[in-house]
Design a protein that fits this description.
Blueprint: H1 2-9, H2 13-26, E1 61-67, H3 69-73, H4 82-87, E2 91-99, E3 107-115, E4 118-124, E5 129-136, H5 142-157, E6 162-168, E7 175-181, E8 184-191
Parallel strand pairs: 1-6
Antiparallel strand pairs: 2-3, 3-4, 4-5, 5-8, 6-7, 7-8
Region (Disordered): 34-60
Biased composition (Low complexity): 47-60
């Protein structure tokens, strides 16, 4: 069969050889123009997904005022006492005599304590100590943590963040004011009512 093929192709043999030689030369290592490469189809490049627009942080209100008898009257929850503060390491900053306005001849004392950067002023009588003023700048002690919770909850009840928060009772006798920095209370003034 091979001989029959060669005899019939003898006339076209030189042409076949020429085409074969040219085909082999064109497929050499330096020329890839005739080589058709097949590869897996690559996924179409997609433009990067647009990021969802982020909602801007709520702009704090300049001043928020809230009337709440419980929060204004008990901003610490359990109010710190002179004895507790002294046990926790508070130092007496000053003692000033103060004439009792209701009992003639009785002299009481204004006692100022400092504890971890915080200041407490008590009106001290023979019977009891009444908190007159507290200025809190350090919220790490337990009383500060309770106050921070009260202030943060009050701001939430008021509808969002505030730069200044004022809490008072319905009679406007007890007042708490706080300054917020980055959404957290940074300074608080507690002024309970006292006569």
């Amino acid at each position: 069969m091979l001989s029959a093929l060669l005899l019939s192709a003898s006339k076209g043999l030189p042409a076949v050889l020429l085409y074969s030689a040219l085909g082999l030369l064109s497929c050499g290592p330096g020329d890839n123009s005739q080589v058709v490469a097949t590869s897996e189809p690559k996924p179409a490049k997609r433009p990067p997904a647009a990021k969802a627009p982020q909602r801007p942080a709520a702009t704090p209100k300049a001043v928020c005022t809230l009337t709440n008898d419980t929060l204004a009257g008990q901003p610490f929850g359990a109010e710190p006492t002179v004895a507790e503060l002294l046990r926790a390491g508070a130092k007496v900053s000053s003692r000033k005599p103060f004439a009792n306005l209701h009992v003639a001849g009785q002299t009481d004392t204004i006692l100022v304590l400092r504890h971890q950067g915080n200041q407490f002023e008590f009106y001290r009588t023979f019977e009891k100590d009444l908190l007159r003023l507290a200025i809190i700048t350090n919220f790490r002690p337990s009383y500060g943590q309770r106050l921070r919770f009260t202030l943060t909850e009050s701001a939430r009840q008021n509808g969002g963040p505030c730069n200044q928060l004022r809490i008072r009772d319905t009679e406007r006798a007890n007042n708490v004011s706080a300054t917020f920095t980055a959404g957290q209370p940074s300074v608080a003034h507690v002024q309970p009512y006292w006569d």
